Every structure is written in C-alpha cells, then in structure tokens.
Task: structure prediction
Amino acid sequence: MVNITINGKEIQAKEGATILEAAREAGIFIPTLCYLKNITDIGACRVCIVEIEGNDKLCASCNTIVEEGMVIETNSPRVRSARKINVELMLSKHDCNCPTCVRSGNCSLQTLANDLNIIDQHYCKEAKVNKWDGKLPLIRESSKCVKCMRCVYVCENIQSLGVWEIGGTGTRTEVRVRGGAKLSDVNCVYCGQCITRCPVGALRERDDTEKVFDAIADPDKIVVVQVAPAVRAAWGDGLGITPEQATVKRMAAAFRALGADYVFDTNFTADLTIMEEGSELIQRLTDKTGKSKIPMFTSCCPGWVRFLKLEYPELVPHLSSAKSPQQMFGAVAKTYFAEKRGIDPKKIFCVSVMPCTAKKYESAVPEVNSADAGNDVDVVLTTREIDRMLRASHINCAMLEEEEFDSPLGTGTGAAVIFGATGGVMEAALRSAYYLITGKNPDADAFNFVRGTEGVRDGTLDINGIKVKVAAASGLANARRIIEDIKAGRAHYDFVEIMACPGGCAGGGGQPIKEGCELAGIRGERLYCLDKAADIRFSHENPDVIELYKSFLDKPLSHKSHDLLHTNQWYWSIK
Amino acid sequence: MNRLEFRTTNRAWKTMDEICGDLSRRVLTSPRGNCPAEVTAAFLRLCVAQSCGKCVPCRIGLSELATILERIFEGNGTKEDIVLFEKTALAIKDSADCAIGFEAARLALDSLAAFKDDYMSHVEKDCCIASFDAVPCMALCPAHVDVPGYVALIGVGRYADAVRLIRKDNPLPAVCGLICEHPCETHCRRGIVDDAINIRGLKRFAIDHAGYVPAPKPAPSTGKTVAVVGGGPAGLTAAYFLTLMGHKVTIFEKRKKLGGMLRYGIPSYRLPDDYLDADINVILSLGIDVKTGVDIGTDMTMADLRAKFDSVYISIGAHAHKKLGVKGEDSKGVMSAVELLRTLGEGTKLDFKGKNVVIIGGGNVAMDATRTSIRLGAKNVTCVYRRRQKDMTALPDEIEGAIAEGAEILQLMAPVRIESDENENVTALIVQPQIIGEYDRGRPKPNSADKPEERIPCDYIIIAIGQAVDSAHFAANGMPVKWEQLQTDNAAYVPELPGVFSGGDCVFGPATVIKAIEAGKVAAANIDAYFGTHTEITADVEIPPASYLFRPATGRANMRERASYERKNDFELMEQGLSEEEAKQECSRCLRCDHYGCGSMKGGRQYKW
Result:
C-alpha cells in the first residue's frame, strides 16, 4: 500500500493504482472524459487533471501512478480553472445543438459543462462537419467528436479490426475511417461497439424509428414486432426505470402500447434455430463423405458472420447455413403466420427490436430473404431506438399492466433466452443435441462451463461416445485468436460459437449506454435468471415449435426448412 | 538632441532574441511527419511577420500563399489552388526585393515539390496523410530501440533490464554505447526545453554497470539453416535474431576474428576489443557456428552455400577503398585509411615515430586515421580537406578531439599530385587551394582558388575518401550490383535469388553501425517470414511508469575524454562514461514521449516484432 493525501484526506492506495483509481476508491470524485477503464488512458482531454505538491505542472490522474507521500489536490483553483477552460475549448469545437442529439441527457460533455457551470463561451465556435452516407447502419458526426479516441481503441484492441484511425495533426487531428476511406470500403462489421463507448453523440445507429411510426399509422399495414432475448435485459435502462419494473411482460405491453398489432418473441425462432442448427451440427459430425466442414461456426451473429466473410472468406463453408433467429422469424412470420391467420404477407410490416446495430445490415442483405413479400424483416430497431420511441410516445412504462406475448410466435424457452449472452447459443444447442443423440434430457445446467466473462471458453463433451470439442468466444479479437489457432493447427474444435460483442448480445452495440459502465455481465446474468426461472428449458420442448414442424415445416433440415430457414452463406453480398 | 547615442540593451529585444532562440530549437526538433502544408503555412506566416512591408510580392504575396495553403489543408482547396500557389510563389521568388521575400517563396516551392502527394491528398480527398512520429528517438533509431523504456530502467537502477530491453532490437549494446552516431538524439523532444538527452551516454552507462547479462533462450529449433557471410555488425545481428527464432546459423568470416569494421575499421581507443567481444560472446552463447578464415569466392562459393543452406545472408561490408586518382598515388608510404586501421585491428602497430603524416578526407574515418597516426608517434599530422572544417562530415567532437591531440586541419586544399623521391618514397603532397562556392545539393562546392599550388612535405599519405564493396564473386553468381554495391529491395530480399538476402555496408555503401544493425534485423525478420515460421522477438521487461515530475530546463551532461596530452600516447579507451549522478540526472530529463504526448495515443509501445 502507498500512503497519499488527497484533498487533505490521508488515504492508503494500492500500489500501482492511478490517482484516479485511488481517489474513486476513497470516494473522491474526479471528473473524466476520454478515460475509459481497460480501453484508454491516453490523457487527451485534460479534464481529470489534478495538482500534485512539488510539481510545476498539473497531471492527468487517469494515467499517473500514486507514489508514497504524494499530496494531491483534485479541485484546487488552478485545477478548476484549467479544467473549466479545457471543457470550454472542447465545446468550441463541438456541435452543441444538444436538443436534437440522441445523447442529450446521456452525454459526458454535456454533464461536464453543466457540472462546471459553463454558461458563457469565449472561444471561436467552429465544428467541422463531415460527409457521411446516411444509409449505413452506423452514423458518424465529426462535428460532435471530442477526439477521446475510445472508438479507435475499442475497434483495434477489442475487435481487432482497426476501422477507425487518428488522422491529421494539430488542430485538424481527427478520428476518421482508416486511410480516409469510406466506411463501406473497410472491414467494418457494424457491431456498434464504438457507439456504446462514445462519450458524446459522434457515433450512433441509423435512426429508423420514423419508418416504424409510419407503418403503425398506416391502416393497411399489420405491424408485427419481434424482440430479441437480450433486449429484455436492458430496455428499462434507457428509460430510467428499474430492472424490477422493466419485466418481460411489461415490455410486451409497452410495445403493444406503441401500436404494434402483434408482439412476438425472437426466442421462438431462437428455439427454431437450435432445432435447425443442432441438427446440422449432428449431420456434419456424422457425415462420412468428408464434405462437411468441421468445426461448424454459429451463424446467429451478423457482426461475426460479416467478420468471417470479410476477413476469412475461405472459412465461410464452416458457417452454419441456418439463418439467424431474426431472419428465421421474418421468414416464418411472412409465411406460416400469414397463412395461419389468412393475412396477405405483403401487408405484414415486420419490425425487429435488437440489441444490435449489425442486424440492420443483416436484414438488408438481399439473399437472406425468402418469403417473397419484401424484406423478411422490414425494419430493425436497436434497444436504444425502441426506448426513444417509447419516450416519444410518452408511455409511462413503469405503470403499464403486464401483458403476455402474442401467440404462436411468442413462445420461447429458457434455452432461447440465453442466446443473448456469450456461450448461450452453444449451451442451448448442447442441451438439445444431447437429447437428439441420447433421447433423454440432460440436466439443464450441465453445460454451463461455456458461460462466463473470459474471452474464450472451451471444453470437450462425451455424449454417448460422441466426443464433441466446443468453444465459445465473444469479441472479435478473441474470435480472430480462435481462428488463427484453428488455421495453424494449434486448436481443434467441432463446434464454435462466436458473438462479435464482448459478453454477447447483452453487451450489444445497440443496447442503452451508461457512461463508463460495462453492463454485458449484469445483463447476461439477468438472462440466466430468466432461463433458471423458465418452465421449459429445452428448445426441442417448445410446444409452438413442435407445432410449427408438425403443421408446416415437417422436420428440421426438411426441404421447406431449407427454403425458409437456411441460406447459402457463399452468395451473400458483403458490401 | 544628441548627435549620436549609445543603443542601450533593451530588455524587450533581449527577450525577443531568447524567444527566437527557443523557437529555432523547437523548429529543429520538429517531429517528422507533421502536415507539410500546415507547417509550410505556419513558416510563411512567420516570414510575413518578418516582412518590412515595402515590396508588393513580400507584403501581399507571402500572406496570400499562406492563405491558399490554409484553404488547402482545411479541406477547401482545389487543384487550381495548387497551380495558383506555385505560380505566385515563383513570382515572389523572382521579384521580391530582399531575401525575406524571395527566400520565403523558395521555401514554399521546395515544400510543394517535396510533398506534392500530401498537397494533392488534401485537395482531392480532404485527407491529411501526415502521420507524426510518435516517439522521435525510437522512430529515428534505425533499429527502433525502445529508448524511453531503457532510459526509465536506468533511472531506477535496473541496468540489466535496460540491456535486455536494448537487445530486443539491437544485440550490440556495448558497441553502440561507445560508437553509435545516435540519430535518436537528433529530434529528441527534450530539445524544445533545453537539449537532447544524452542517450548514447546512458546506454554506455547501463553496459558499464549491468555486469554480464545472458542472452534470452532461443525458440525451439525449426530445423532451418542460414549461412551468414560476413561477421560484421549486420551479420552478427542477423545471426543473433535468427538463432533466437530457432534457426541454425553458420557465420562465414574471411578474417581471423568476428566484428568486421568494428574490429578492423574502428580504432581501439574508441572501441576497445573487450567491449566488442562482450557483445560477440553473448551473441555466440546462443550456439552459432563460426567459420573464420573462410573467404566466400576463394575457399567456398556462393553456389556451395545456396546448396547447403536454406537461406544465405550476404553482409560482406565495404572493406575496399576508393582511390584518389592523382599522379603518384602508387608511391611507397601512400595507403588507404582502411588499410591503416586494418593493420591495427590485426594487432600490428606501424611505426610513425618522427614522421610527417598527411590524411586526405573529412569524414569520421579520416578522423580515425588522423588520431591513430598521432598515437602511432607521428611528429606532425595534417588533415587535408577540400572544403571548410565546418563542412566536414565527421562528428564535431571527433574533429575537436583530433585538434586537441595536436592534429592540424588544413581546410580548402584539394590534392593535385603526390611527389616521391628516386626510391618512390613519398616526399610531399601537392595541393591546390580552394575557394568555397555555391551550394550544390545542400553543401557548398569547393572551386580552385586563384592562388598557386602549395607543397606539404610528408612521409606518409593516408587516403580516407571513402570505401568500396568487393562484390565481384557475388556479381558473378547472379547478384545484381550497381557501383559495386549489392542490390536488394527494402526488405533485404535479393531479386530473383530466392532465399538470398543481403544488407549492411555492402548494400547501403559505408554507413553507421546502427544502420548495419537495422539491416541485420530486417533481414532476420524477412528470412523468418521466408521460412514461414513467424517467430516473434520479445523482451520480457516491465517498463517503470513515467514520473509525474517535470524537470525544468537543465543542462545536458556530456561524456568527457581523457586529457589529450595523456590519451594521444596510447590506444586505451579515451572516452569516460557518465557518473551515476550524471546518469540519474540525464534520466530525469527524459520527457517520456512513450507516455506523454502522442506516444501513448498511437498504439503505445511495441513489445515485440
């Protein structure tokens, strides 16, 4: 331990801790802007500066290590003045049109300016506007960027893609797409991890809320909503209601209150995915022709699928041909459901609520559609967008009566809900694969070794003599590691689950943002609680899925299943 | 009113002089890779501030040039702006009344010519392609040694770790601690505050205080074999890294001992054998086969090596010498500096006692020959150079040291012919006095002055005007050669000879030891890639955190040399290392650009390569 004094208070700090960490530990608040734990401590914003006795200069507390006997002031007149001026300087180069910014009320710069009581502005206001293709799932507004560089580091270090770079020098230093290229020309997978790390509104998803409001207002459209597993773990965070209030049933009620005609659950097609993908896995493992590629990679995560297609196209045959639950839902809604209800599928407006920005890209891939009624999924909204719609509609969600999902596409099992956390698809698949091979259910928690926050988890199972080596990973840098290991022959797997976002969809790029907090773990836990409490915890036991096969699809991997629920990964357009 | 008055020292002017001094230091330490358009615009604004405002081109034109440039780098410029810029600058250069104007315009034109791509990128793509060197010392070291890292380690007394960290990129730390030309210091950011850190001095301090630091353990054997031809710094470096990567290396060295020019070209008063051998012993401790006394071309052929080894690295150096091309050059007593220094390296000391020796040349090798001649007992040693002393390419310290030891620098004298007696022994060098003339490629050219020839009586003439590569055997075996230098691409690959790599003086021409180390490192990386093994080189050394204390302007501690009256009589090491007190102070001056500024912003430290 190191003895230091902060603001006259003597404290003991851990050796090697930064001043910021030591202060936080002692309950002393130092404001920050660019600093983000485990992502960056480059000391660029000069907001977390402190005064250290005996030193002529102020120091960034985020990257200065405590030393024995240090006497620190976090709010001396010098500190206060410099901090305030630095924030004012940033404001002078920031598009301060806060009322029309998606991050208003959840913006670090706004909070800092308010906290520091910045009322007058003394510097020449000039925010450089950039050109951007507004059709992309990811939108960047240079005029709001504070050059904290978090996006650069997240993309480089966590996702190993390096889409963003620091360009120019001096006043013109900017964050830009690598090499000054267009975003569509570099290997961006639209995971949105940069968005959730942005402290201001410089990065956001394409806003598709008006399209949904228009569809709701159109009497000829039947608005069918599906909601992904991970959304239920986070939707309340963007509305300021507690997790206790933000129940799954209240979420269904809220979407219905918005004007949706049917509120369904992507969990239904998550269970369907398990039936198809699980069967495909068994088919691949037992294939004697040698044509099947092992390991099989999951295909639920569009960020990951895009990553593989762009970075390792030679491995595309390893991807499961099963569509993602979102796309299976769209296909089933516009065929089976339309037929069952006698609705013209062209009237169905399929809205998907996802924790994900890459899903916006996925739904627009031409080759993924098979219902012959426009895009199978018409609009993808992120959790943040649905929250904005609820706020725009002035719906008091906390006070809503709880309601059930609609039937039949509203039934999901515990195995489906954990699709929203890293390892969840794998675990759900193993539960059903075990059943398919042995004819009996395993303990539902038998495969929980694939859960967890570590980058990569792996293990070997023995199901009736069939040895299956599996791995689950989240974050694309971890995915790259696994792939490189497989390619180099350092690792051998039969089944690999990858989710592009760290922690899986719970930590998805479309989830509500809370500055400085990595919430994937907590949100994932909420999903595991829902699984634990579920009446049915095996996908193959979902009664409505069983019914779907019985009356419509025949059986997993049937001809019809192939038409509707599978896709030829080779043929996808990438750009 | 008085008819005349003294100009009293004006405090404001004095301050302005100081500001200009600070600014010029700052300009000289400019990091490489700033946006040239923006820097040029800033310089033009400075030129405008210097303008008296009398003549039109300077008064209005310079400011307009800056404005056009600002438009360009702000992303609002067009190709037409570049044309306008060039035309305007030409007009100012041609028509401004005084140097403040026309020299400013010349600077603008030079910038445009050198950085056309940057300018075009701004107008065509609104994209600035400038990219700052994050840590100047590391960027400018050809081997990219982690300078802030080892300076910090020395600062906390971890000398062995400092040596380990240096060896990650450079296996010759003892050699470099003594004789590196330290390009790392040229743009040291500390220069903005006071003066560059004494980086070489600190490296030597670490070496002198670390004790024996064993080499790291090599990677498991790959079964691949490499022949290294030439055991100089490039060959030793390649051998070291290749062995660490798990490949089996055999060094073929023509002479009796390893070291190349380090042993046979650099006199021991600058680099004693024990320093050189310390580095070589660590390198050889990895288990490298060494075949000395084997000349490729005589004892074995290039074809033999290619047949026996998976890869061949040619690093034969530049051990031949260039000739002066004057009458009498074949007289007895005329020799090249390379020959003189080689005899010394081989342990033979020529006897110059009571003799007059003339050295021709102005580079570091000329200074080595000059100071060696003094140590060999010469009565008078005169160094003859065509240009002025300030134009000599030798390090200023070397020239001053030679003068202190009693050498005479005879500037502006071009050799015309060599006189000899009936036995063909040298009697004098005839020189033609020169006048320094116009600049040509950055250096003023000497021209024959309107003065008669002069005669410098002497017994020995040492020619130090450059070295050449003895590349005949390799050229005959299909290696491309230009002006006797072997040709490779930037990655040390020899075109059209798969598996053959080359580097060092034999490719670059005579250069510095650190350039040779760079060559060896690049070759090792690419030979490893050629094998498809991709083994990374790391140093498992944790770097101390940067101190929060900023040390205000403090003088740089320099090394001293033993007194000239003493050192000129022997070949013992003449430079004295920094004291611990000095080393600590130097370390505390380091600004830690790896932590502060853009060092941390642009990807941070490279722990491996």
User: Anything to note?
Assistant: The CA atoms of residues 31 and 115 of chain A lie 9 Å apart. The interface with chain B takes residues 41-44, 52, 54-57, 59, 63-65, 67, 149, 156, 166-170, 172, 176, 179-180 of chain A (CB under 8 Å).
